Amino acid sequence: MSSLNLKFTINTADSVMRVFTVPATIINRLPSNIDFVSYDVTKGGEVHYNDRLAIPERFDDPTPYLGYLNQWMAASAAATPALTMTQALAIKLAVLDVFYGINRQMPFTVSISSGAFAFDPSDLAVSRYFASVTGLSSVQLIPMGLTAPITLTSSDLQNVASAFNGHDLKVLQIYAQKKADLNALTTMTALIAYDATIGW
């Protein structure tokens, strides 16, 4: 993981984006019904709308705002003092970390004796699953999308555990390759263009 926790704000009123408090003007404005966007990977993001009650709406996936981040990087690279390659790489690695976290906790499907079911691989869900099965030959769990529990045998539980581990390892391997790809880039243009959202 990188040493930076991605943080940014976008203000429609002055068309300014701040990344780690550093401002730069962005060319493309936010939609007219949005006044302000803030994002902190440790807390999530908030969108402040002007066409509804003034209660922020939360989000976890910053994908809609990465184009603005690229604009900020291009503007900052042309500024004085300029964004350095080391700083640009650190920002893109911070973005990569966000999508590693998102993708390792995406739901996935496991085939067990009673059918194929989607399970939640989030850290909290995994801890709940396996805290409830210690020493048991079977257990009832509620897969994603269902309202009633299903019974999992010990063999089913092994399949689910194996799928959890396989999913986590696959995402980690992709993350490691993407991190190596980013570190191999040698120009600001290539760093700005790098898309961490695809290929998972």
From TrEMBL:
Source organism: Bradyrhizobium septentrionale
Name the record gives this protein: DUF4376 domain-containing protein
Biological classification of the source: Bacteria, Pseudomonadati, Pseudomonadota, Alphaproteobacteria, Hyphomicrobiales
